[in-house]
Specification:
Length: 83
Amino acid sequence: MVGKTLKSVTRAFNLYRVPECRARVRILPDGKLSVNFSGTGTHLYRCSDKHFEGYRYYFLDLAGADFKIVDMKNTYLQTSTAS
């Protein structure tokens, strides 16, 4: 049930966000969710909270459940080709 719900919510979120943002979700051993956002707009740190909050609202609307964001990290790696 949980897997189907996550898949449904994530699919709906991605339907309107790709290519700017794409969510990938996995369930950690302690029962917490890890959500990784990738896409053309995810390197903008000011948008990170927007993606998390957007996913949270999709989860609330489609699954009828809420969750608390306990940690948020921006792991975007920027590389340079200059020598």
